[in-house]
Amino acid sequence: MIITCVESIPLRIPFKAGSVSDASAWGDSNLPAADSLLVRVTTDQGVVGWGEAFGFRAVASAKIAIDQLVAPLCVGQDATRIAPLMLDVQKKLHVFGRGGALAFAISALDIALWDIAGKAANMPLCQLLGGGAADLPCYASLVRYSDPPLVRTSVRQAIEAGFGMLKLHEIELPAIRAARDESGPGVELMLDVNCPWTLTQARAIADDLKTISPKWLEEPLWPPENVAGLAELRSATGIPIAAGENVYTLMDFERLLAAGAVDFVQPSPAKMGGISELRKIFPLAAVHNAEVMPHSFYDGPGLLAAIHATAALGTADSMIEWRRFDLEAAIYGRAFSPKHGRISVPRGAGLGIDPDPDVIGRFRLSL
Ligand SMILES: [Mg+2]
To answer: Which of 67, 190, 316, 322 is the most exposed place for a label (fewest CB within 10 A)?
Structure first.
């Protein structure tokens, strides 16, 4: 089955008018929408696969990486030989970097090839990977609001939508405390701060953070590759630590885990190499007594890749990250969303659902 075309498809889906979950809350008031980058891989036998590269501000650069670097290496190759093709792509492109937009581009291609493999076998991807759960627990990943009353509103709305586990992206104590005050003790809270602090600063704030009993503290330190610092923070404070969305290679995941830096490791399939690399992290985490909690702050094929791999390879404690954006449209339509804090694993072949062509038609961005 020969790859005949690799097409990159940028999307810009605006936030719903009046929504509080707009991107200005991230301090990026020029970002009016959630930008995504889909990849559509076509084969000579008519089987079509969909992938996703990490988006937002990186869409334009990842698109160039797909169009100019990745696609020319793939067109004309056998889509069913995923491992040798991905190894060849990685070896030929490694001189241009092992992370960032190029890695996002490679990830999108890999996810699309696995979608094709599932469709060719007429099996859902989780079955191809060994079986797995029919549904998975799902946590609501909230945007950063900073303003305590807005934090309370978003926490209340997420709980009312059926979530019993919420992740905050707050970094100021009043906002963090407001979330716990609103949720009460029965809701599991995770706290993702996106790499703001030195080790000294993190240690100074640790006792305050413990008062909300976070299930984990995510990416507390700058720079993200400070694995020794994470390990020290973890052992000195006893706060469970999560990290991994900014780790790209298997050997760097091994360094993170071997350092004793994390309780929860968070590979991001649309960033770190797709299904081919993500599936290696589950056994690696297990031998280091860590739990895989994939990063999936996106809503296209990357999210489905995280769901299928976790259903097949995760444990009973694995959870899916559900980005709680209030957008004008959803790539897979409104029907695909968590119910009572759980997400069904799509049972169709491959990733199980294709992106809605109407959504692509309405929100395709010309770059
Ligand atoms: Mg994060």
So the answer is: 316
pTM above 0.85, yes or no: yes
Is the torsion defined by CA of 354, 360, 363, 365 positive or negative?
positive
Asked if the 3-122 domain carries CATH number 3.30.390.10, the reply is yes
Q: How far is the CA of 220 from the centre of ligand 1 (A)?
A: 10
Distance 194 CA to ligand 1 centre (A): 6
Q: In 184-338, which residue ranges form alpha helices assigned H by DSSP?
A: 199-210, 227-237, 250-258, 269-272, 274-287, 301-313
Q: What is the pLDDT of residues 237-285, one digit of tens each?
A: 999 999 999 999 999 999 999 999 999 999 999 999 999 999 999 999 9
Closest CA to 190 of 75, 95, 286, 324: 324
CATH of 127-344, one of 3.20.20.120, 1.10.510.10, 3.30.300.10, 3.30.470.30: 3.20.20.120
